[in-house]
Amino acid sequence: MEVSATRDLLLSLSEWVALHRLPGLETVAVVSNKTKGANVFAWDDRRGLLAVGRQKRLTVFRLDSGREFVEVKEFGVPDILKSMAWCGDNICLGIRREYMIINSMTGALTEVFSSGRIAPPLVVPLPTGELLLGKDNIGVFVDQNGKLIQDGRIIWSDTPASVVIHRPYAVARLPRHVEIRSLRAPNALVQTVVLRDVQKLVQTDNCILAALANSVHGLLPVPIGAQIVQLTASGEFEEALALCKLLPPEDSNLRAAKESSIHIRYGHFLFDSGSYEEAMEQFSDSHVDITYVLSLYPSIVLPQTHIIGEHDKLLDMHELARESSDATDEMESYSLQLHESDDKSPLEVKKMSHNALVALVKYLQKKRSGIIERATAEVTEEVVSGAVHHSLILSEPYKPKKPNKKRAQTHTSSIAREMATVLDTSLLQALILTGQSSGATELLKGLNYCDLKICEEFLKERSEYMVLLELYRSNEMHREALQLLNQLVEESKSEMENTDFNKKFNPQMIIEYLRPLCRSDPMLVLESSLYVLERNPSETIELFLSENVPADLVNSYLKQHAPNLQSTYLELMLSMSESGINPNLQNELVQLYLSEVLDWYKILKEEGSWTEKIYSPTRKKLISTLESNSGYNTDLLLKRLPQDALFEERAILYGKMNQHLRALSLYVHKLQMPERAVAYCDRVYEEGAQQPSKSNIYFNLLQIYLNPRKAEKEFEQKIIPVASQYPGIHKSSSAKFKGSRTGKKVVEIEGADDIRFSPSGTDSGRSDGDGDDASDGGPIMLNEALELLSQRWDRINGAQALRLLPRDTKLQDLVSFLEPLLRNSSEHLRNYLVIKNLIFRANLQDDLYKRRQAVVKIDGNSMCSLCNKRIANSAFAIYPNGQTLVHFVCFRESQQIKAVRGANSLKRR
C-alpha cells in the first residue's frame, strides 16, 4: 500500500491495483485488466503516474480526473521485476541480480550494475530525487540516470531487507535490529534499535513504524535541537550543522545562533588539532568578529579600539540557544583549550606557529574586502555630510548655530574604520612573520588602515626596511622615508657582512622615490636630492627633466645650497634637453665657466706660464658653449674678459655680434691660427648662405691678409660711431686711432673691453682700391691669401680678389685659383646658352602646336582672295592670320611670281 497525501488517496496491490478514498476507504477505481497478477508498483504522486510490474511487462498509467487510470505506455523487460522506483522521467528497475534504468517515454533500457549475490535488488528513492540501491550490505547512491555519486555509500552491519528514509537518516530493517545511519558522508552509525524479526518499516510524518509478528513499535525522533546539542557535545560537528538546516523556518534566529556556536566550537577543535586553515573556514562561517580569532594569536599586537568584545556576543547566542533545549548544559560545559606545548620540540612549535599564521593570513585576506569596503563607505559618508553641512552654513550665514546632536555618535560611526585598522595591522604583522614581505608591500601600496605606530615599531624590530619605506609612503611621511633611505644607502656603502643588504639599497632607490614627488612637492625633492646629485648627477638631472621640475627653481636652490653642483646641473640639463635651456640659465652656465677660467688664468699668469694655446677642461667647455649656444649676454662677457688674454673667447663673442672682421683679425694676428679663420669663414658662409652680405666673409679675410690698412679703416668706421654712444668708456683707446698706424691700432682696438657693438651690425667690407695700397698697412700674408683663393675660389668674387692682390703677384701662383674659376664660368655660360636655346625651341613648339589647332570652315560662299572665285572642292591654303583663304594653285603661282620679281631686282642691282 502507498498513500497519496496530496490527493487523499490510498493505492493498494492485492490481486490487482485498487484506488481508495481516504479516510473512508471507499473504492474509487480498480485496474483489474492490466494489473492482475502484478507483484510490484511505483507511484509518482506529483504527476499522478503509476508504474506496475507484472511478469515481464511494465505498464505506465495516468490518474485521470482522480477517478480512473488511463494506460500510457507498456514495455517489455528482461525478467520479473523485484523492485522499482520513479526517478524523474526514468524508472529504476530491480530485475533478478541487476539494476536497470528505463525511460518512461521511449522505453530505452540502460544497465546500472549488479545487485549482489545474497539479497534481492532494493531500490529506495531519496527526497533529493536520487536513488539508494542495495548491493548486499552496501547502499550505493546514484543519480536519476544511474551514474554513481562520489562518496555516496552506506555500509550496513548486515544485509537490509528494506530501507526507509527519514531525513537526515536512513533506517534499515536488519534481521536482528533496526539500524539508523546518516545520509551524509561518511554515513556514520547513528543508532541501533534492538528489534528482532521486524516484518516491515513504514515511514510517517512524525515517526517510523516497525511491524513485528504480533506488535507494532513507533520509532520517534529526538527533537532536532536536542540532537544538535548531543552531536556537538560528542564532536560530530558536521552532523550537527546538517541538522541545523532542518530547524523550522520560523526559528531563523535560533538556527543562526546554533550554527554560529557550532562553527566556533568546531573551529577551536580544528585549531587544536593543527588544521588551521579548516579552523579559519569555520570561524569565517560563524561570522565571529576578527578580534575573537586574533585572540588566539598572542604574538599579534592589536591597536587600542572601542569595539565590543565578541565574547559578549557569543554569550548572547548561547543564551538564545539555551532557551531551545534542556540539554544545553552539556554544550556550555564543552570547552576546548589550547594544547600545552611544553612537551613539544621547538621545531614542532615553530612549524605549528608558522602554519597557524599562514592560515590567519588567508582568513584576514578573505575578510578584508568587506571590512575595507564598509570603512571606505563610512569615510565617504562623513565627507559628503561634512560638505553638505558646510554648504548649509554658507547658505545661512545669519542662522544661529545649534549644538550637533550627532557628536555623541562619532564613536559608534568609527567602528568600521577601527575594525579595518585592526585587520590591516594584524595582516601586516602576519605577512611579515610568515616571510611574505612582498605581500606586505603590496598591502601598503593600496588603500590600507594600518596603525602607524604599531607597524613602525614592528618593522623596525625586524629590520623590514623596504616595507617600512612603503609604510611611510602610504602615510605621506616622505621626509622620514627619505631620511631612512639616505641612512640605508650610507650603511650599504660601508663594509658589512650581509652582502644582500648592500645590493638592496642604492642611490637609485632615492631617485625612484623622489620621482612621484616632483610635481606635488618640488621643494622637498630639491632638499632631498643633494645626496644623489653628488653621487648620481646624470640620473638626478634626468629625473628633474623627465618630471618637469622648474629649472629656475633647481638652479636657484643649487646656487644657494650646493654651488659646486650648479655647473654640473646646467651642463647635464643642456646636454639632455632637446630644446635647450632658457637664455638666463645659459648665461648662468657661461658665467660660471668664465669665472673658473679667469681664476685659472690669474694663477697661470702669476706663475708666468700662461699661453693662449693652453686649454683646461673648463676652458674647453666654455669655448664649446660659446660656439654652440647664443642665449648668453655677450656684452657682459666682453667686459669680463682680460685685454691681453683669452683672444679665442673674444673672437667667438665678436662672431656672435656679427663683428666678423674683428673676429678674423684676432684669429689671424693674435692667435696666429689662419686655419681657424678659414673655418670661421666657412661656418659663417654656410649659416648665412641665403644672405648676400655674408657671402663677403672670405673677402674680409683676404683684406686682413693683403690690405691691413683698409681693414683698419673699416674698423674705425664701424667702431667709432658705436663708441661715441659711450663717451666715458676707454677714451684713450679711441685717441690712438688718430695718432698711430699699422697693426698696433688694430691690437688696441681689439683690446677695448668696454666698447659695445650692435649685434645686428655686419662687417661686409668691400674693396674698390688697387693693389698698390696693399703694402701700406704692414707685411702682407700672400701665401695664406693664395691658399685661401685656391681652396675657396667658388665662394669669392674673382674680380675683387684680383684687384686686391699685389701687382707683382705671379700668374703661375694664381693657376689653382683662376683655372677652376674660369672653367666654372665657362661651364655656367655654356649651360646658360643651352638652357636659352632649349627654352626658345620649347616656345616655338608651343606656338606651332597652337597654330595647328586652328579650325577653318569652308562652305559654298568661301572665296579665294587672289582670283575671287569660289573655292568649292579645290585644294586650298590659308595665310597665317587664319582668315585669308586662297586656292592652293593661286598660292603657288603667287609665290613663283614673287620669286621671279626678286631675282630681277637682284640682277638690276
Automatic annotation (TrEMBL):
Residues 1-208 form the CNH domain. Residues 755-776 are annotated as: Disordered. The keyword Transport applies. It is found in: Cytoplasm. This is CNH domain-containing protein. Coiled coil: none annotated. GO terms for cellular component: cytoplasm. One of its GO terms (biological process) is intracellular protein transport.
